[in-house]
Amino acid sequence: MKKNSKSNLSRRKLMKSIAAVGSISAMPGFVNYSQASSSAPIRIGFQVHRTGIGAAYGRWYDRTTQAAVKIINDSGGINGRPIEIISEDDGTDPKRGAEALEKFANQHNCDVAFGTLFSHVVIGSAPRAGELKLPYFVVSEGHHVASGMLNRYTLQPGITDVKSQVQAMAPFVKNNLGKKVTMVYPDFAFGHDHRDYFSAAFESQGGEIIAKVPIPPTESSFSKYFPKIPRDTEVLYHVMVGPAVLTFVKELGEFYGSKGPKLFGFIDSVEAVDLNTPGLEFLDGSYFWEGNPRYAQDNQTVHDQFYRTAVGVDKNGASVSDPKDVSTYAHMFGCWETLHIIKKGMEVSGYSDVKDRSKLIEAVESMKNMPLSQAHPQGAKIFNGKTHQTFGHQYISKMTNGKLVLAHTTSIEDTFYPDEVDYTKQSF
Amino acid sequence: MELGPYLLFASLEGLVHAAVLSLIALGLSLVFGVMRIVNVAHGEFFMLGAIITWWVSSFVSGNPAIGFLLALLVVPIIVGMTAVLSDWLILRHLKYDPEATIIATIGILYIIQQFALMTFGPDAKPVEQPFNIRLDLYWFGFSAYKFFVIFSAIILLLAIWLVMSKTKFGLILRATQLDSETAQAFGIPISRVYNIVFGLGAAIAAVGAILIVPIQQAHYLMGGEPLLLAFIVVIIGGLGSLKGTVAAAILIGMSDGIISVFFSPNIAKILATLLVVVVLIIKPNGLFGTTKT
Amino acid sequence: MDILNDELLYTENLSKNFQGITAVDKVNFKINKNEIRALIGPNGAGKTTFVSLLCGRIRASKGKVFFNGSDISNLPVYKRISSGIGYTFQITAIFSNLTVYENVALSIKNRRDKEKRSIIFEVLNKVGLLDRVSQRSGDLSYGHQRLLELAMGMAQRPKLLILDEPTQGLSDLEIENFKKLIKDFSKTMTVLLIEHNMDVVMSIADKITVLHFGKIISEGDKHSIQSDPLVQKAYLGDQC
Amino acid sequence: MRKDIILHLSALLILFLLEILGIFSEYHQGNFARILVLAAYGVGYNILFGYTGLLSLGHALFFSAGLYASGLSIYHLDYNIEQSLFLGICISALISLIIGFLALRTIGVSFMIVTLMFSQIAYLSILYFGSITRGDEGFVIQQSSRVFLSMDLSNPKIRYYSALLIFSLCMLINLWIAKSPFGRVLVAIRENSDRALMLGYNVKLYKLFSIIISGTISGLAGACYGILFGYVGASFAAVSYSIFPLLWVLIGGAGTVLGPLIGAIFMFYLIDYASDITDAYMIIVGVALLFVTLFARRGIIGELRFRYYKWIS
Predict the structure, then answer these.
(1) Of the four listed, A178, C84, D195, D269, which is most buried by Cβ atoms within 10 Å?
(2) Where are the domains of chain D?
(3) A406: helix, coil or strand?
(4) What are the sequence ranges of the domains in chain C?
(5) Which CA distances in Å does B120 have to B49, B52, B112, C185?
(6) CA D129 to chain centre
(7) Is the predicted ipTM greater than 0.90, yes or no?
(8) Is D134 on the interface with A (CB under 8 A)?
């Protein structure tokens, strides 16, 4: 992809010269100039975790993005113009992230920027986006957008945030699994969001968090934390991220075998991990939050089917070319949906070039209902233009015979919380 | 969990940790002891050992034990040769000047790490355990493989001790460590010895990596943490002292587990780091002392 | 203290132990103003350790050092130096990336620029390095580097200048020149000289102290030292 | 002497002209604003490493001390820019005093490890006190807070001039030190600390001053980085941010006034271009480190000074 961005550059030069030729030969009978100009590609800067701890996510974000772009371009692009993706590695590092946005805006003349998952990269990059007046569509699931921390140029229309996800889980956990919960989470901002929002929601449901076990982000071995889980724990709520997740679940299995408390985990703990890895058998019967069900369900929608095929994911959630290469299915749909939202926003606002960026943002802000469709294969969503955050269905699956089977779908309303910001009041 | 079983569990986990740590630290300590240089790239040799183990075992289908044994045979040699090469190409030319060597090994660190990223990609690579048996110890379960790790490390440490104390090669190393100039005067080929020691240090770390990958996974960024811990061990244990290093590794490995019984793990890490600072400040010329005169 | 007394420096039971080995053993040493004193002794006798104790590079295990009438045993090095002790190293120790001028300038503290310049030129003139004043000192020949060190010691204007094996590695001609310089120095300062070259010792020292296994075994003028059987034994024992 | 001052002032003038004549494209303008602040950090590092000869592997601690002190005071206490900058400078000076006092009890390799460990402790503490520091995620300093004397610091032009101002200030301090008797003593300590001691200098005190100056300049750079670029995060306290200034200084020339700037520009664009070719762009850092240690120990400016222009500071 990297090399593409180079050749893209030269292609852009080529385009310019074609346009120049066009203007000279703008006479009756020839393809007219305005048409040639308007078919110049829409340039979308794609900030991607190719290296650093987010790399597994980055790879699949990339594949999903390429697939979505192909679908959109094959069906006529945006306002008749093709999308061109300019990718830049952010190294899962905030400073690099901000520099990538700078490149998009000033070096590659991108129309908008998009991508990236890890919150610190988003938070490090967003101020730059605001300053560069570059619309920045993130697919991060962090609560940073709706919390009001960022700015009018940063939006998260394609994926529900962690606050919504977590609070929507609370009723299910309490009603189906147990009232005494111990939480195991990474000891940094992402884990703290889980800790704070889940315990608030769960306690308001009448449940009790009996222990909280934070695990340092640099940890590569986890067993020593498990004895901190009290014996009377009914439900173990676990969420872990980073390259060591497989070690985490394996050691959890070694420790408890089949005797432990009921498990409720965020799929992050096993994202991109093959669930048939030896040592993970103990997960059978446990529950997972999934942003989007990894395994094709019996009642799979045609849209999921279409999306799955387009990205190249088989019915088990792995790459069609390599069954060991498991996707980050629970998150990556956000890229697909966000690109479709950009397309729609540009079409509604009649976007033609960078001076229309604020019109594009206003167009997206005025969106509300996003029904289940090919553009939204994960499910229907309601977008809140004031907080720049989308809200959608959440899925809870049960591990059954080595596969995740959908057990419960939350309503969109379960994910609502009061607005914490109104970005539309900020000026451009 | 009740305190008794909890402490038992923490001790067992601590022993696994200590076993691998003592191998990594021993490699570092050997290099420092004999060559008087700090090898910042040591953690990357460990990482390389882990990733190549994954690579080697991915060639072997069927019983994972075969891949594991193959790795034990091949990986230390590959990693050792890489280290020998970097000594021969780089460090030798710096005349082992302490500061230049540190800067150069930081360079080697990035090169090996990024080479692993380019070649093997950014994902964590799982290696299957040679045998997958869970022992149920009533209060908690424990993997039989982890006992195997402890056991193998002990055997290996004994072997290294025998080599160091009973063979001529060991004698040469000890002589060089004591006084390299005199050793040279007695006809010991110092540059060859340095070359071999640098390779050997890396190879020992690689063995530690082979033992640990079936428990953790191979990842191109995995070298940083063990490097810091190995530093801590080497500083606390005293230089070039096999016994000291092993004792410190057990202390650090166990305490990391046991401190985290009582304190937040993050605090445990902060405390361990602080301990090293205190040791170094109280004995400024002691363990790592290089006085310029 | 007796003010009329012309002792510049003396020690009381000065001792130093290194991990059980006694390098300097209860030494009572005395040096008078404007004297040239040589400190000799076989290799490993503790000469460098002893002078290091005097200027504070090494902390004494026991005993006291008095300088110019006051107890300096607990002063840090830089204060001892400021109170008037100069020291030149056994191995060449100059700032080789700085010029000759800068090297000497660093030895002069708390003086005005003009005064400083004149001192620098004066001492460089004396040692014969005036024509190399702006040369990088690392580029000087070995002999010239030793002279530069001497110039640095001189520019400090110490009351006591300790020279640790200053003639090591010099040619005969350079040594002759050096002897003249030391004689010249002693008009304005006291010199304590550690020296192996007996010719140098015998021709310029007013008094000689012999150290062996950390103890003073003999002290006196050159004739009494040459005829002292203990000294002969110490040296012969060392060389055979 | 005069040639030397003219050279350094004209370097600053060029940086000024590049902007005022509009020679920069927007992209390079943004990059240079970043580089100038980072180069100021490099200047701070150079005082300790290049002039005094103390190799610290923990300068990220000082950089992040300034970054967090000023950032947190804006974020939690609504300080304005002046106040937060002042606080950033004070805190980093205080921290350098404490760290200097403790770390200077060691020398050589121990000093490197102790500084490394101190900065590791700082890094872990930032993560540990996540409720205040927002942990690894960090926080944003809002555009509305980044106003100094009614100038919007996020405006590219103003940001560039601010960065240039900060860098000029640090560079001129460095030049002044290089020319002063104080600087001579630092160099003497670097060349041969034993000899400097035996000339009667209180070597430890000079070293301590050097750490304080170095740490405070690094902290100033950190505070400015947060204020100018609007983000404060734990990654700035990680080991790699201790290695970068070492690298810039080595490449540009340790103990030269312009070295950190040249080194920072060189490395920034080298990484920038390399990242178009490979994801493993950090390999460039490794190769560069090896190159300078093996073949160019003096760095670019250092080599020029050694070979041709002996008058360069």
Answers:
(1) D195
(2) 2-235
(3) strand
(4) 1-84+160-167+187-240
(5) 13, 9, 12, 71
(6) 25
(7) no
(8) yes
pLDDT band at A65 (very low <50, low <70, confident <90, very high): very high
Of A3, A5, A98, the CB nearest to D231: A98
Pick the CATH number of C1-84+160-167+187-240 from 2.60.40.1220, 2.160.10.10, 3.40.140.10, 3.40.50.300: 3.40.50.300
**Per-chain mean pLDDT for chain D:** 89
- On the question of pLDDT at B79 being above 90, the answer is yes
Q: Considering only CB atoms, which chain B residues are within 8 Å of D198? A: none
- pLDDT tens figures, A206-234: 999 999 998 876 677 888 888 888 889 99
Report pTM.
Answer: 0.83
Q: Tell how strand A136-138 and strand A112-115 pair up.
A: parallel
Query: In angstroms, rounded to a whole number, what is the distance separating the alpha carbons of residues A357 and B228?
Result: 48
C-alpha angle with apex D292: D287 to D293, nearest 5 degrees?
Answer: 100
The amino acid sitting at A71 is: I
Kindly give, in sequence order, each residue whose CB lies less than 8 Å from that of residue B90, ignoring residues fewer than 6 positions away: B104, B108, D290, D293, D294
The pLDDT of residue D133 is: 86
Phi, psi of A368 (to 5 degrees): -135, -75
- Per residue in D206-261, pLDDT tens? 999 999 999 999 999 999 999 998 889 888 999 889 989 998 998 898 889 999 99
Is A89 in contact with D139 (Cβ distance < 8 A)? no
Residues on D contacting B at a C-beta cutoff of 8 Å: 55, 57, 102-103, 105-110, 112-114, 117-118, 120-121, 124-125, 127-128, 193-194, 239, 243, 246, 250, 278-283, 285-290, 292-294, 297
Residues of D in contact with B100 (CB under 8 A): 293, 297
Average per-residue pLDDT for chain B: 85
β-strand A235-238 against A83-89: which pairing, if any? Answer: unpaired
- How many CB atoms are located within 10 Å of the residue A14 CB? 10
Q: Is B217 on the interface with A (CB under 8 A)?
A: yes
Chain C nearest CA to D51, separation (Å): 12
SS (H, E, C) chain C: CCCCCCEEEEEEEEEEEECCEEEEEEECCEEECCCEEEEECCCCCCHHHHHHHHHCCCCCCEEEEEECCEECCCCCHHHHHHCCEEEECCCCCCCCCCEHHHHHHHCCCCCCHHHHHHHHHHHHHHHCCHHHCCCEHHHCCHHHHHHHHHHHHHHCCCCEEEEECCCCCCCHHHHHHHHHHHHHHCCCCEEEEECCCHHHHHHHCCEEEEEECCEEEEEECHHHHHHCHHHHHHHHHHHC
Spell out the domains of chain A, with CATH numbers in brackets.
Answer: 2-161+331-392 (3.40.50.2300), 163-324+393-415 (3.40.50.2300)
